[in-house]
Design goal:
Elements: H1 2-29, E1 50-51, E2 54-55, E3 65-71, H2 85-89, E4 93-98, H3 105-114, H4 137-143, E5 148-153, H5 155-159, E6 166-170, H6 181-194, E7 201-206, H7 208-216, H8 221-239, E8 246-251, H9 267-270, E9 271-278, E10 285-292, H10 296-304, H11 326-348, H12 350-354, H13 357-378, H14 383-410, H15 416-438, H16 454-473, H17 482-510, H18 527-538, H19 543-547, H20 549-579, H21 585-595, H22 597-609, H23 619-634, H24 640-659, H25 670-696, H26 718-737, H27 745-765, H28 772-793, H29 817-828, H30 830-845, H31 863-889, H32 896-928
Parallel strand pairs: 3-7, 3-8, 4-10, 5-6, 5-7
Antiparallel strand pairs: 1-2, 4-9, 8-9
Helix pairs in contact: 1-15, 1-31, 1-32, 7-8, 11-13, 11-14, 13-14, 15-17, 15-31, 16-17, 18-20, 20-21, 20-22, 20-27, 20-28, 22-27, 23-24, 23-27, 24-25, 25-26, 26-30, 26-32, 27-28, 27-30, 28-30, 28-31, 30-31, 30-32, 31-32
């Protein structure tokens, strides 16, 4: 008992340290903010007023009113003659913008307003907005006392809390079930602002289209309806009597993936339209050129007649400057090139800039510009002047694009000190727990992996302090406060301590002559399992394998099951053939094959699960069948009253989907349908609560009798009963959260795990020498493979755009980040969570007497916390640690942010999810294991 508790505590410490190391690595690899230059204050802020001795006058604002009409998730192919006829036909200029990753709202707004690229880690901060402290267009306008009005996504208000003169923020921006109400409020604010004439910039941010995509996908009929609604809002602006000298810009913050989400790097997510409207449109043109989203910032700064934000690295959009006089256009190109050249001088050094090609282009452009000033001011439009203008313009644009590209590349900054600490801690913890599990029998006594050694701890403390001091002296550890520097000593000390432990253990294993006998593995390692696991881990080094990782799991999972099935079949046939002296071989083979018929049915089911997305025509029938089968599979975990309420809950799940129009249901008036949704959800939660309470009654002292009061049978143990109740309730909740076509995955997962475990037991018992630990190893690795297969069957991927946010808002009327995060995580990682919980429950329930094992010491069930959990944790941590090492090697890879970075976030979050499930399970072991 004490040994089992110590194993759980040891696993808890290793997982905690691993996550600490992963956090340090991510902070070092994805710094919270980019800085193009170490000293931004040295970049001149004021607009230039001279050119080679000639006086320059910054041009006045080009328009009286500017409107930024931002439609969230407006991809480039959405606006057309049928979806947005007014907006499409009346646009003076149709352009396209390239959006940098991550394609989520908050970093996109930063790019639009500051002109700089956002950090990839901003995608994790998208739900926790902080004030935008850097320079921006809005800060510049506020300095000039310009009136800036806003209506829409409250993300703007969090980024710019004091920059708006008037604001009407949608406080439930993350509530994705709101398709229309928030947008109606924005349109109402628009109508109010159009009646006023005091504003310089009006920002409108509509969210309905993005919400429809998240909930119903990009091909929902509601998308066209929403686009027509947006078209009417554009028409309101264009037809209003107060709009005389204006510039209306219609664009999106990011696009929308084919599945309806965003966050990835597909063309549908990274390309948005930019439609321009003004009162006096000389011509209506469509340009095939595509500019960067950050190019909006300096262009708008010139049109607004304010300074370009200091952080901006964007270029100008020439089509937006065509209505300006030539002198003002030349000033715009000169100012932007001059601004970027100053940033290059600060970043790369004056001498480096002076020797560069773009400095020569800049000099040539300024000389031509100077020659043009007099003819332009005197109204000379001769051919020579136009040639000089085009040459100067070309050189200015070349300078801007070259410097912008170099500054973009220079944004890649890594805190190598934190990366090293994080990498050391994750690698050491992974190796430590792997060695501890592989040498389970001697890990404490001979390898001393489970003991705290005071002398080694003091040595690690001294070394950690020295490394911390040296790191700060060499500027490898850049920490802003003394407290952070002191706290950093802890992970460094832990890394040193674990590294010493691992090194000592490896020496003892590798140098057997120094000891009385060679140390042997406590756990058998089947070659086939190791090969599949190694293939999967090594495949992480390829961007193509990461993008199509689901194919790797489909192939390896099915191959592994088939391989074990064929080996078991061969052993059974061989054993029976020996017993019958070779007679009736074909009958023996047929009988053995019939014994394993179910596993081949499972393989067929696993193949069918890959095509769930094609079964939409029969989804109602499929859902009914899946819920019935799921209820039958959960029946063995529940008493009769629990099973009754479980069945009612599943009927309510179908009713909920029917009321939402997702499956066939009774035809009801729309007003009745809306009124019935909430009562159905309330009844579902009541049923779930009753199942929970009925299961937990066994933990109460008055229920510790030998028989249940409800069904006449007492539970095998309180621990098992509680874990089964948790598993059942969690499955019930996931049935509500899953998409209609994905509900069939739940019973299929249980069937697959059941039959796979039976196959592993049969494989172990047909071996010449039975090993309980061999059976455990097979079950653990097969559980991981099955869980990953079903994770991808569900429609998940390594792209952030496939995260389904809809489950987070079921039954909610407002945005609650904790509930949304919990529901989305439970839905996304359903297969991972429930496969592990099912493995624990199965291990506690297992009784191998039916396969010929009469006595086993220690008992099979006791391995749940002493071996199964640590080994499972090791196999979850090891690939993640390996991938963190790969990230360092691939840090300058072309796809580091588009492919590798989302994958590392997924892997680290997978470990975190397992950590939380492990904590809750360990708590039950600690409280109730004595009853097992």
């Amino acid at each position: 008992m004490e040994e089992n508790k110590s194993r759980l505590a040891y696993t808890f410490y290793m997982l905690t340290l691993f996550l600490c190391g992963a956090v340090l690595f991510l902070i070092g690899f994805f710094p919270a903010s980019y800085s193009v230059a170490e000293q931004e204050n040295s970049v001149p802020i004021d607009r230039p007023t001279t050119l080679h001795g000639e006086k320059l006058e910054p041009p006045p604002p080009s328009y009286n009113s500017f409107i930024l009409f931002l439609i969230d998730a407006l991809r480039d192919d959405f606006p057309n003659e049928s979806t947005m006829p007014v907006a499409y036909d009346k646009a003076c200029m149709k352009l396209s913008l390239h959006v940098d990753i991550p394609t989520v709202t908050m970093p996109r707004l930063k790019s639009i307003t500051t002109g700089t690229l956002s950090n990839f880690i901003d995608i994790a901060l998208n739900v926790g907005h902080t004030e935008q402290v850097e320079d921006s267009l809005l800060h510049r306008l506020k300095q000039r006392n310009a009136v800036v009005s806003f209506a829409g996504d409250h993300t703007w208000v969090h980024l710019f809390p004091t920059e708006f003169t008037r604001k009407a923020a949608n406080n439930d921006s993350f509530y994705v079930n709101d398709f229309y109400e928030g947008d109606k409020n924005v349109t109402n604010a628009l109508e109010s602002e159009l009646e006023k004439k005091d504003w310089t910039l009006l920002i409108l941010h509509y969210l309905g289209l993005d919400h429809i995509g998240h909930v119903e996908g990009h091909d929902s009929p509601k998308v066209n309806h929403k686009l027509k609604e947006m078209d009417k809002a554009v028409k309101k602006i264009l037809d209003h009597k107060n709009m005389d000298n204006y510039l209306l810009m219609l664009t999106g913050d990011h696009g929308m993936a084919d599945g309806g989400g965003h966050g990835g790097n597909t063309p549908a997510e990274t390309t948005v339209p930019l439609y321009l409207y003004s009162k006096n449109c000389s011509k209506y043109t469509t340009s095939t050129k595509r500019y960067n989203q950050i190019d909006l910032t300096p262009t708008l700064a010139l049109l607004l007649s304010v300074e370009i934000p200091t952080m901006s690295i964007g270029c100008l959009i020439p089509e937006m400057l065509q209505t300006l006089p030539l002198e003002h256009q030349m000033y715009a190109y000169f100012y932007n090139a001059h601004h970027l050249l100053n940033k290059a001088r600060v970043k790369f050094g004056h001498e480096s800039v002076r020797r560069s090609d773009y400095y020569v282009w800049y000099q040539n452009a300024t000389l031509l510009h100077k020659e043009l000033l007099h003819p332009l001011r005197s109204g000379d439009g001769s051919g020579a002047s136009k040639v000089h203008y085009e040459n100067a313009k070309l050189n200015y644009l070349r300078v801007a694009r070259e410097i912008s590209g170099q500054l973009s590349e220079s944004l890649v900054k890594f805190d190598y000190g934190l990366i090293a600490v994080g990498l050391a801690l994750t690698t050491a913890t992974s190796l430590h727990i792997v060695l501890s599990v592989l040498f389970l029998d001697v890990a404490t006594e001979q390898l001393h992996l489970g003991r705290l050694k005071l002398g080694q701890l003091l040595l690690s403390l001294v070394v950690g302090i020295i490394l911390n001091i040296v790191g700060h002296m060499l500027d490898q550890l850049i920490i802003s406060t003394m407290l952070q520097s002191l706290l950093l000593v802890l992970p460094i000390v832990a890394s040193v301590y674990l590294t010493i432990d691992v090194a000592q253990a490896l020496i003892k294993i590798a140098l057997p002559p120094l000891y009385s006998r060679r140390l042997k593995l406590s756990i058998p390692l089947p070659l086939s399992l190791l090969a599949c696991f190694a293939i999967r881990t090594l495949s992480l080094g390829s961007s193509s394998f990461i993008e199509f990782e689901y194919k790797t799991w489909y192939y390896l999972g099915n191959t592994l099951i088939l391989l074990i099935a064929l080996k078991t079949l061969r052993r059974r046939i061989t054993k029976a053939n020996v017993e019958l002296d070779g007679r009736h071989l074909h009958k023996i083979a047929s009988a053995c094959l019939w014994q394993q018929r179910k596993i081949f049915v499972v393989l067929l089911l696993l193949t069918l699960m890959r095509y769930l997305h094609r079964l939409t025509s029969i989804k109602s029938t499929l859902m009914l069948f899946a819920l019935l089968l799921f209820w039958a599979r959960l029946r063995k975990f529940t008493d009769t009253p629990q099973a009754i309420f479980n069945g009612i809950a599943f009927m309510l799940v179908y009713s909920f989907r029917g009321l939402n129009g997702q499956v066939h249901f009774f035809v009801l008036p729309q007003h009745l349908t809306a009124r019935f949704v909430l009562p159905v959800l309330v009844l579902f939660w009541c049923c779930l609560a009753l199942v929970f309470v009925l299961g937990y009654r066994t933990a109460l002292p008055q229920q510790h009798s030998s028989h249940s009061l409800l069904d006449g049978q007492g539970p095998k143990s309180n621990l098992l009963k509680l874990l089964q109740t948790n598993l059942t309730c969690s499955f019930m909740l996931v049935a509500l959260l899953h998409k209609v076509q994905n509900i069939v995955l739940l019973p299929t997962l249980l069937i697959t795990l059941d039959e796979t475990y039976k196959l592993c037991e049969a494989y172990g018992t047909t071996a010449r020498k039975f090993s309980v630990r061999l059976v455990h190893v097979y079950k653990i690795i097969m559980t991981i493979f099955v869980a990953r297969m079903f994770y991808f069957y569900q429609g998940n991927s390594n792209s952030l755009s496939t995260i389904d946010l809809t489950p987070g808002y079921i039954g909610q009327t407002s945005y609650n980040p904790i509930l949304v995060g919990f529901f989305v995580t439970l839905n996304t990682y359903s297969a991972e969570i429930h496969s592990f919980l099912y493995l624990i429950v199965h291990t506690l329930r297992a009784d191998l007497r039916n396969v010929g094992i009469i006595q086993m010491l220690p008992s099979y069930a006791k391995a749940a916390d002493s071996m199964v959990t640590p080994l499972y944790a090791a196999l979850v941590m090891l690939p993640a640690a390996f991938y963190l090492c790969l990230m360092v090697g691939f840090r300058y890879h072309l796809f580091i942010y588009s492919v590798f970075s989302p994958k590392v976030l997924y892997d680290c979050y997978t470990v975190l999810v397992f950590y939380l499930v492990f904590l809750s399970t360990s708590l039950y072991f600690k409280l109730f294991k004595q009853d097992a």
